[in-house]
Amino acid sequence: IGNTVLHILVLQPNKMFACHMYSLILSYDRNKEGPGSLELIPNNEGLTPFKLAGVEGNTVMFQYLMQKRKHNLWSFGPLTTVLYDLTEIDSWAEDQSFLELIVSTKKREARQILDLTPVKELVSLKWNMYGRPYFCFLALFYILYMVCFTMCCVYRPLKPRTGNKTSSRDNTIYVQKMLQESYMTYEDELRLVGELITVIGAAVILILEIPDILRVGAAKYFGQTILGGPFHIIVITYACMILVTMVMRLTSTTGEVVPMSFVLMLGWCNVMYVAQGFQMLGPFTIMIQKMIFGDLMRFCWLMAVVILGFASAFYIIFQTENPEKLGQFYNYPMSLFTTFELFLTIIDGPANYDVDLPFMYSVVYFAFAIIATLLMLNLLIAMMGDTHWRVAHERDELWRAQVVATTVMLERKLPRCLWPRSGICGREYGLGDRWYLRVEDRTDPNKHKMMRYTEAFKAQDRDSYDKGLEKLEINRDILYKKELSALSLSRSTSRTSSHRGWEILRRNT
């Protein structure tokens, strides 16, 4: 019952009342420090009161709980060294990481905890000591891996075509080699090494991604932008396409160019995920994800309807015409592609002035230009501008949360020998087996002195103003004008004394 009450208090809107009641209930807890403490009992979702405060973005309760966990090590003048208990905060030995819970929640208030002590210092320590070097190394390794795979695709085994052309539009001069003919020369063996590296890399990607999907859940793993959801979809699809290409090569199945082209596109697009570790490029990857999965996805449905309708109309109009004179709409797939190019104004309207064009082509193209180019395309630009304005205010905050998610991901996947635990063991200071983070806090005495001066000046202005109001009420009917001028003089005098005080303060500082 006590643990349930603690969880309810974390969700209370009255933060100060909740803190006082929280402290009162814990005062009756018999096992304050043991494993049976009320603060360490999780709810049905596996969240302790401390983790629940982080997920809900309750910064007041979080700071209150952290104040209870800190230990002042020593103090000398304005410097104070504090040890913060990292229990439930550090993700090193936690199955359900506190940092991962914060970045994966949908509440924006929870991300404000990343700027509070000691979370800010812990994340900065992890990222600067281990996260950034490892991530840069993995980024370089991935780019070299993609260069290797690209070269294998460029120099894939091809041979000249010996068969006859099936039509006048057939332009194929090379075909794919059979498996027995693909690995005969020294260049082929060198390409084989690159292909083996590519297949091994795809298998490693699947081995690393599948356990996280099973642990977190597919909806949360792929749906969270901060956790890199869309890029996880890209990299898993990339690995699967690599294996499909390998099977087609081993079985000598023609058409490997289809999965191979998809793999090249997805693999190089995933470089944007690598760019998130750099402050210069990271916020822009967040903005691109927001635009693609926000405005662009909704707009693509409308664009598909318009393109489908007008492409069908163009195909019907040119179905009876000679494709050699105007071949942009000679079959239905080409009509769809040409209409898509017209929609994005990549090409102009196809025309051949040596032949007569159908009259309905001019009418349909006029309507298409008005609806697609002038209306829908400018609507998309306006929508993206609005999204850019909204995301620009929080892109740095989202990028910092993404850095936290990347740090937690690297900490989970790298071996323990490459990522030691952060902080100081409490046994060095007689605090048990818990781990602590040492933070130095500097108190500026001039800041407190300035605040006292400011409060004194405000009180002086407030007293002068109250005295003037009292005089005005007493003599309202008798000396209204006279007292009003006196009030103005009094306020101007106080304002002058306040100004003089601020000048003294400015010179001293």
From TrEMBL:
<dbReference type="InterPro" id="IPR008346">
    <property type="entry name" value="TRPV5"/>
</dbReference>
<feature type="transmembrane region" description="Helical">
    <location>
        <begin position="231"/>
        <end position="251"/>
    </location>
</feature>
<protein>
    <submittedName>
        <fullName>TRPV5 protein</fullName>
    </submittedName>
</protein>
<dbReference type="GO" id="GO:0005262">
    <property type="term" value="F:calcium channel activity"/>
</dbReference>
<dbReference type="InterPro" id="IPR024862">
    <property type="entry name" value="TRPV"/>
</dbReference>
<feature type="domain" description="Ion transport">
    <location>
        <begin position="135"/>
        <end position="393"/>
    </location>
</feature>
<keyword id="KW-0812">Transmembrane</keyword>
<dbReference type="InterPro" id="IPR005821">
    <property type="entry name" value="Ion_trans_dom"/>
</dbReference>
<dbReference type="Pfam" id="PF00520">
    <property type="entry name" value="Ion_trans"/>
</dbReference>
<dbReference type="InterPro" id="IPR008344">
    <property type="entry name" value="TRPV5/TRPV6"/>
</dbReference>
<dbReference type="GO" id="GO:0046872">
    <property type="term" value="F:metal ion binding"/>
</dbReference>
<feature type="transmembrane region" description="Helical">
    <location>
        <begin position="134"/>
        <end position="158"/>
    </location>
</feature>
<feature type="transmembrane region" description="Helical">
    <location>
        <begin position="257"/>
        <end position="275"/>
    </location>
</feature>
<dbReference type="InterPro" id="IPR036770">
    <property type="entry name" value="Ankyrin_rpt-contain_sf"/>
</dbReference>
<keyword id="KW-1133">Transmembrane helix</keyword>
<keyword id="KW-0479">Metal-binding</keyword>
<keyword id="KW-0040">ANK repeat</keyword>
<keyword id="KW-0677">Repeat</keyword>
<feature type="transmembrane region" description="Helical">
    <location>
        <begin position="192"/>
        <end position="210"/>
    </location>
</feature>
<dbReference type="GO" id="GO:0098703">
    <property type="term" value="P:calcium ion import across plasma membrane"/>
</dbReference>
<feature type="transmembrane region" description="Helical">
    <location>
        <begin position="296"/>
        <end position="318"/>
    </location>
</feature>
<keyword id="KW-0472">Membrane</keyword>
<dbReference type="GO" id="GO:0005886">
    <property type="term" value="C:plasma membrane"/>
</dbReference>
<feature type="transmembrane region" description="Helical">
    <location>
        <begin position="359"/>
        <end position="381"/>
    </location>
</feature>
<keyword id="KW-0597">Phosphoprotein</keyword>
